[in-house]
């Protein structure tokens, strides 16, 4: 005898329910962010300062090893810095939710555990994309131009959007591990300020001291930046070795590993947060 599945059961229904929960949490988060529009400026501020101070004021003072306009060279570094600037605000907001007992209230509701963190990062992704739009507009005003077609240009921005989302999960994991806003505020400036200078964001690795050069070449930030410069047709730092010759592959692998590790550890920590 055959049986007919109830239309409200099954994997498809479960996936749809989780998606609805994710969107509900994201909507709640965006509602709160509407009262703090300065968050977008906060995310875009460091990249804007880098682009103006380095890419505009020093554009005639810095010479790239392979030639080209230094202002266009810096833009990719500033755009990627938006993703790094998203880490701190996300970490702080998640830590405050844990400390304030909001996580406990969410755990008492009949919703998926993963929906809370995925909804949070989905809402913060929108903030990051708005910050990226601000930085892109400033870059266009300062003279940056993509030199390739529409599809490569959009592909580069898609890669940055992916990098933003992965960095949001780094922020979530920092919140789950460090837990206190004070500690997070000490750690996250290192990510925003130091990591770009340990990459090819503003200087070619060949111009760096010998011990720092391999770190800059293998830095995942460098892989994302190099891939974007190639897709935009902007000046790039010459380099040899696997990271310089295969930036898209290095970026895809490192971002995939980072996302898998950070999301898995964050969800595991979330189950016991606040206990």
TrEMBL record:
Q: Where are the transmembrane segments?
A: 12-28, 40-58, 73-96, 117-142, 154-177, 184-204, 248-267
Q: What InterPro entries does the record tag this protein with?
A: ABC2_TM (IPR013525), ABC2_TM_bact-type (IPR047817), ABC_2_transport (IPR000412), Nod_factor_ABC_transporter (IPR051784)
Annotated ABC transmembrane type-2 domain ranges read 38-273
What is the predominant subcellular site recorded for this chain? membrane
Q: How does it sit in the membrane?
A: Multi-pass membrane protein
Which locations, inside or outside the cell, does it occupy?
Cell membrane; Membrane
Arranged from A to Z, the UniProt key words for this protein are: Antibiotic resistance, Cell membrane, Membrane, Transmembrane, Transmembrane helix, Transport
Q: Which residues form the signal peptide?
A: none
What is a single Pfam family found in this protein's UniProt entry? ABC2_membrane
Protein name in the entry: Transport permease protein
Which organism is the protein's source? Streptomyces catenulae
Q: What is the lineage of its organism?
A: Bacteria, Bacillati, Actinomycetota, Actinomycetes, Kitasatosporales
